Amino acid sequence: MSRPHLVVIDPQHIFASPDSAWGSPFFPEAFARIRELAPLFDGRVTVTRWLPTADRATAWGDYFREWPFADVAADNPLYDLVAGAAELSPHPPVEEPTFGKWGEALAARLGPEPHMVLTGVSTDCCVISTALAAADAGVRTLVVEDACAHSTAENGRAALHVMSLFGPQIELVTTAEVRRRLTA
């Protein structure tokens, strides 16, 4: 089995700031755990960014009409990484206009026999979308429950429950469990 790669989903101001309609109240705790984990991966870390560049002629147009505050240029500070996120990885971020970040760019980053340790925000949107698509592609995926931030506690529990149904491709773990596995 290949060595795992840490993937940090969308640590951006729009999802982290308490002033944002999409800000997760759980982000500070989750991000602290992500920062603890990153050094254990010896540079095998990828940070992703969600960008508002989807075609507005699709259902994304309806989405942005519902969330007009987010319908701004991709270079708006809302979409910047939070302080400390860029330093987690020696690689440029994988940027996608989709909830799920599993695709060609992330697959190429992880290489053959991909094994992913998944963290980030939001558990009940971009994390679950990434995990399910990766599982479908045959990727061994560990979702670090306490290093994921969700919109609400209830939504986080629901998303984690759904992901738990996809074993053995998806396994729910804690930061402590990842640390034990990597240092054993």
Automatic annotation (TrEMBL):
Organism domain of life: Bacteria
Pfam families in the cross-refs: Isochorismatase
Alphabetic keyword roster: Hydrolase
Domain spans labelled Isochorismatase-like: 6-168
Gene3D superfamilies reported in the protein's UniProt record: Isochorismatase-like
Family matches, as PANTHER family: PEROXYUREIDOACRYLATE/UREIDOACRYLATE AMIDOHYDROLASE-RELATED
Record-given protein name: Isochorismatase family protein
Species the sequence originates in: Brevibacterium daeguense
Lineage: Bacteria, Bacillati, Actinomycetota, Actinomycetes, Micrococcales
